[in-house]
Amino acid sequence: MSATSGERRGAGDLDVHVSLRRGSFALDAAFLALAGRTLAIAGPNGAGKTTVLECIAGVTVADTVGVRVGERVLDDVGTHVPPEARRVGMVFQEYLLFPHLTVLDNVAFGPRSTGAGRLEARERAAEWLHRFGLSGLSDRRPHRLSGGQRQRVALARALVTEPDVLLLDEPLAALDVEVRDDVRLELADHLADFGGATIVVTHDAADIRTLADDLVILERGAVTHDGPVAAVFDGPTTAYARRLVGRAGA
Amino acid sequence: MPRSAGRRSDRSTPRLSPLVWIAAGVALALLVLPLAALAVRAPWAQLPELLGRSEVVSALTLSLGTALLSTLIALALGVPLALVLARSAAWPVVPRRVLRALVTVPLVLPPVVGGVALLLLLGRRGLLGGPLEDAWGVTIPFTTTAVVIAQVFVAMPFLVLAVEGAIRASDRRFEQVAATLGASRATVFRRVTLPLVAPGVSAGAVLCFTRALGEFGATVTFAGSFPGVTQTLPIATYLELQRDPQAAIALSLVLMVVSVVVLVALRDRWVPGTTA
Amino acid sequence: MTALGGVWSAARRLAVGSALVLPLVGCAGGVDTVPGSSSAGTAAEEELTGQVTVFAAASLSDVFGTFETRFEELHPRVDVLVSFAGSSSLAEQIRQGAPADVFASADLATMASVEDDGAVSGSTAFTSNSLELVVPVGNPAGVTGLADLARSDLAIALCAEEVPCGAATVTLLDAVDVEAAPDTLEQDVTSVLTKVRLGEADAGLVYRTDVLAAGDAVEGIAVDGADDVVNVYPIAVLADAPNPDAADAFVDFVLSDEARGILDGAGFGAP
């Protein structure tokens, strides 16, 4: 099922192969996420979606992991680039904005941690906040933001570090249903501006349609579908995939 | 304001049952009434004269100084220990439980026994104290250093357990986020881990300071009691009890008031913003 | 060491708890010295029964333990219960209505405070205790007499002036005109003894009975003039004693020749 093949790999493409066993849970997935495109990973709960993202971000170590961005090896036999050196940005579920820092300092955290001076870091942060329409909220603490605002701050915080790869773990799940559609459209705009490979984990068909170009479906630790969104939606082959694309019982 | 946040906080604070209120009231009464009795019976008129006595001033100064020093030492050593303890969750059962027990033992040990234990280790004939005296002529008992060591021994576990609880309760994913943003381990610890557990650290430090300030048993056993050197306010108070109980009540009141004042002052200084 | 520390701290905690509300009375009074009754066995003929609760100063633990055994042998139908604690703690318990029959205090002042409250009318001095120099085994600092307490190169442990043994210490040192250079002023005799036993202190002043009770763990050095500064122990039957007959018999036994012998063996002096 995997679309991975060395010949197709471009400079910013993300090539992933993750394999691990934790008790009775086994995960073995391989796929390619192309630069400038958004790949959605869908699947039922417990399929291993978040684990895959964590392996790519380097915060979880699997039994065997192969992660490459273009020719840059992040994980291979005998190689593990630590998360802080991978240039992989991640927006976690619930966004995880640092509660002790203001919005501005949350976004400035990345530049500051990678060598920028305080002023420069804040300048770059302010620039991204401006781009995301969050300038007025710079001095707020995260707990005083709405869900949508938090999500944008988390995205700005990840993007300000200019990562090669952007990972989003269920970026809309923490939001109230009423605001989800607006936030989703806005998110799609921001993702469109990002030049690297983007991976969005979700189990919402609306997310996939609006945000993603390609789709990988992960079920019980294995890839069951992999291809452009339209192609997968045209021919779902498993019960989960059929339910996802709205063809249950069809 | 976000509706989701509002709803969540409503859900997390359900109405308390009347039984809870009653139990809480009894608990508070149990804590406060004895102190209130102390305050009622205190010879207030005697207080200014007592506070002016040189031995009271020296005992108070010694107590505050040693308790503060003990708290700083406990912070420097206890926070790393708390980190190790919090991470020990991933260890095999036996070493994890042994480590936890070792940290907790000074809490359940009668302080006097702790003092004897310190003597057996650091006394002139102690396992370490003996060689120390032979090699450098250094003796620890009957010195202010001994007071600080006794206080650290008795009070540090409070700090370690409070900080460890805070570390466990804090979301480790914040550290992962920080790492993906390019922060080195040291930066993560300094700018994320530590600030997030700051309320726990401050609570632990406060507990540690109060415990050190009130320390009696281990101090009197290990360090002895000599005015200006090792006789802290609790020891002076205890001795005064034998001679002039009224004065002793006044002294314990001083100890209480001083701890409350210091605690309030420290709290505001140490927990900037995290209370929001 | 551990057991010692536990008991010791428990006793101290009791003392702290009660002393907070305890107005100590400084004057001694109402004590008359009565020679011991010659026969400890007379009471047995009255067929004493029931339980006798004896509150005794902690320093009497060893001898009163023996008294309990002997008295129960003499009066098989009597059950003696002895509660040991600091004299002032016991006095406070008595004041608070503890159902005791007999009170044996380590000093006259505490007994006087109980008498003032009407819990006791008239007590009898039955023994006394005097101070002795105590040094670690082998006497490493070569201490020979009270004058050595003035040596600043030694680690000296004395009782604090606020507690009875410290008051006695001050009186004794004043009497022999020694300016002591203590390194620590302890809150009770046991603490002084512990410091000497562990070798932390080169010398200390404690009661003779404590030196004897400590056995081979320390060495005692008798000092001149100590016999002039004694601590007198009074005993009394409480006014509200639940079992006054047996209580009287127990006090008689404590004043008997047999008990005198036991007290002598433990290092206690004449009343």
| CATH arch. level architecture of the domain at 6-97 and 164-244 in chain A | 3-Layer(aba) Sandwich
Helices of chain A, by number, come to 8
Shape of chain A: globular
Q: What radius of gyration of chain B results from the CA coordinates? A: 22 Å
Q: What is the CA-CA span between the terminal residues of chain A?
A: 24 Å
**Mean pLDDT value of chain B:** 84
Largest interface by residue count?
Answer: B-C, 36 and 37 residues
Architecture of chain B, according to CATH? Orthogonal Bundle
Output the radius of gyration of chain A: 18 Å
**Average of the residue pLDDT scores of chain A:** 87
Query: Distance between termini of chain B?
Result: 16 Å
Main CATH class of chain B: Mainly Alpha
Textual characterization of the structure:
- The complex is a heterotrimer of chains A (250), B (276) and C (271).
- Chain A is α/β, with parallel strands linked by helices and 250 residues long.
- Helices cover 33% and strands 25% of the residues of chain A.
- The two termini of chain A are 24 Å apart.
- By secondary structure, chain B is mainly α.
- Chain B contains 13 helices and no strands.
- Chain C has two domains: 31-128 and 232-265, 3-Layer(aba) Sandwich (D-Maltodextrin-Binding Protein, domain 2); 129-228, Periplasmic binding protein-like II (D-Maltodextrin-Binding Protein, domain 2, 3-Layer(aba) Sandwich).
- Chain C has nine helices and ten strands.
- The model of chain C is unreliable at 1-44 (pLDDT under 50).
- Chain B binds chain C through residues 38, 41, 110-113, 115-116, 119-120, 123-125, 139, 141-142, 217, 220-221, 223-227, 230-231, 235, 238-243, 245, 248-249, and chain C through 1-2, 4-6, 8-10, 12, 15-16, 19-24, 88, 155, 157, 160-164, 182-187, 191, 194-195, 198-200.
List its traits:
heterotrimer; A: 250 residues; alpha/beta; 6-stranded mixed sheet; 5-stranded antiparallel sheet; 33% helix; disordered N terminus; B: 276 residues; MetI-like fold; globular
Topology:
The complex is a heterotrimer of chains A (250), B (276) and C (271).
Chain A: E1 14-22, E2 25-33, E3 38-42, H1 49-57, E4 64-69, E5 72-76, E6 79-80, E7 88-91, H2 103-113, H3 118-131, H4 147-159, E8 165-169, H5 177-193, E9 197-201, H6 205-211, E10 214-219, E11 222-228, H7 229-234, H8 239-244
Parallel strand pairs in A: 3-9, 3-10, 7-8, 8-9
Antiparallel strand pairs in A: 1-2, 1-4, 4-5, 5-6, 10-11
Chain B: H1 3-12, H2 18-41, H3 47-52, H4 54-87, H5 93-108, H6 111-122, H7 129-136, H8 144-169, H9 173-180, H10 185-214, H11 217-222, H12 233-243, H13 245-270
Chain C: H1 2-19, E1 31-32, E2 50-57, H2 61-74, E3 78-85, H3 87-95, E4 102-104, H4 108-116, E5 123-136, E6 156-159, H5 164-176, E7 184-186, H6 189-197, E8 203-207, H7 208-213, E9 218-221, E10 230-237, H8 244-254, H9 257-265
Parallel strand pairs in C: 1-5, 2-3, 2-4, 6-7, 6-8
Antiparallel strand pairs in C: 4-10, 5-8, 5-9, 5-10
Helix pairs in contact in C: 1-3, 3-4
